[in-house]
Structure formats: C-alpha cells, structure tokens
Design a protein that fits this description.
The chain has 240 residues and is an alpha/beta fold. The protein has helices at residues 5-13, 30-42, 49-57, 89-98, 116-124, 135-147, 184-188, 233-236, and strands spanning 78-81, 84-86, 106-110, 127-132, 153-157, 170-175, 190-201, 205-213, 216-225. The chain has a single domain, classed as Rossmann fold (3-Layer(aba) Sandwich), CATH 3.40.50. The strands form 2 sheets. It has a 7-stranded mixed β-sheet. A two-stranded antiparallel sheet has the order 1-2. Helix 2 runs antiparallel to helix 3, helix 2 (30-42) crosses helix 4 and helix 3 packs across helix 5 (116-124). The chain is globular.
Length: 240
C-alpha cells in the first residue's frame, strides 16, 4: 500500500487505526524541512498536495553523507560519492509532479543514487522499482531506504538503460541521469497514459516529459537542468 501522508490522514479521519510512517515520526529537523519546502518548492510553483506532503515527509538528511548532513535542507545537489550526486530538492519535486502520480501507480526509477527520489516516490505511490548502475550506491540506498521504513521500494544494481521489463508496464518512469537520447526500452515499458520524465542532452540538458497515448507519444521539454550523464549502454547506443 502506498505510504502517502495524505492517504494515511484520510484513513485516520475515518476512524481506522494505521501505523505512523517512519518518515513522519518525530524528527528534530522537521522545521528545517518545512522551511525548505515553503521557500524553495511551494514558492517556485510546485502545488500537487501529494508531492508537497512527500517532500515534507522524507528526511533528506538520512540520504546524504554524514559530513554533509548540515547541508541536507539547502536547495542544492550534494555529492554522494562515485562521481554521483543527490538531486536538488526542487528538481526532485518538479520531476515528481510532472510524472502525474496516483496512489495506486507502479513507478520505475532509473538512477537510484542516494535513494532520496525513490523515497519521495514511495510516499505517493504503491510500488517503486529502482535501478542503480553503481553497485555500492545501490547497496547503500537499499540499506538506507529499508532503515527509513520504505518497504514498497525494490532496488536492483545494474544498467537501467533497458529498464525492468519483468515488472512493466509502468504508470510512470523517472530517470535521474541524463542520456543524450530517450532510451527506446523505457518508452516500450511505459503504460498507455503513463509519463516518462527524464533529463536529455550532453552539456545542454532539458527535462523532457513524454506521455504515451493510444496512438503514440507526446513529447515536451519543460525545464533546463544539469544532471550527471547516464552511463553504461546509454553511452554506447546511437542517439535517436
């Protein structure tokens, strides 16, 4: 079942008894997180209530290196080792909102990194499958997500270019590393009505939103960004 804060609140309002999600338990840094959300996410136009609630709920400091913990609620990327970063909170919120998620959705993430984006997705949707090409990061994210209570996230170490076909189709796919073209296997694994959100490009990148329709795909470029490149097969496959 999705661990959406809003969903839990509705259940409580109906008199049901539910366990409080780990991410919403007493947290000494909740005030910092609220300030981050108010100043850098809501103020910049993210309005989806489920996304805003998830950004308030996920304890970002649990997903950054200990020596950078004091910077966890600044609105910027941070290094997490292996030449990778944890994404800027605003960009995480923007991409999550662009995916148009519903509570019963099944979502694929390519580029687990720290696990932070996966945690935000897991607050909103039923199941998250996430793939990380750097095995030590995949193992650390698996451990950190489990410790934070996210039982609906499934982590795999491997190259995400070809997605996770045995669990397709997905209602949304979120990619957090930039290929120079849109991988065809990800398009193939998108459900009709589903959305693929990913940065595309080399030096100049844009977040691209692709929605699968009954007759094909609709594409738009929605935000200039700067992500680390997608490695592995994405660097070998010809651009499309």
């Amino acid at each position: 079942m999705a661990r959406s804060v809003l969903f839990a609140a509705l259940l409580l309002g109906c008199g049901s008894v539910v366990d409080e999600p780990v991410a919403t338990q007493t947290d000494a840094r909740a005030a910092e997180r609220d300030r981050m959300v108010d100043r850098h996410i809501v103020a910049r136009g993210v309005t989806d209530p489920a996304v805003v609630a998830a950004m308030r709920a996920v304890q970002r400091h649990l997903f950054v290196p200990d020596d950078l913990s004091e910077l966890a609620y600044a609105d910027g990327p941070l290094p997490i080792g292996h030449d990778q970063t944890i994404s800027q909170p605003y960009v995480v919120a923007f991409m999550t909102e662009a995916a148009g998620l519903e509570p019963d959705d099944r979502v694929l993430e390519i580029g687990t990194g720290s696990g932070y984006q996966a945690a935000v997705l897991a607050e909103i949707v039923e199941e998250v499958w996430t793939i990380e090409i750097v095995e030590p990061l995949a193992e650390r994210a698996r451990k950190d997500l489990k410790a934070a209570g996210y039982e609906n996230v499934h982590v795999r170490a491997g190259d995400g270019y070809r997605g996770w076909p045995e669990h397709a189709p997905f209602d949304a796919i979120v990619v957090t590393a930039a290929p120079d073209h849109v991988p065809q296997p990800l398009l193939d694994q998108l459900a009709v009505g589903g959305k693929l959100v990913l940065p595309v490009g080399t030096y100049n990148q844009d977040i691209v939103l692709i929605e699968r329709t009954e007759s094909g795909y609709e594409r738009s470029e929605i935000l200039p960004v700067r992500f680390v490149p997608m490695t592995g097969e994405a660097q070998e496959a010809p651009g499309r």
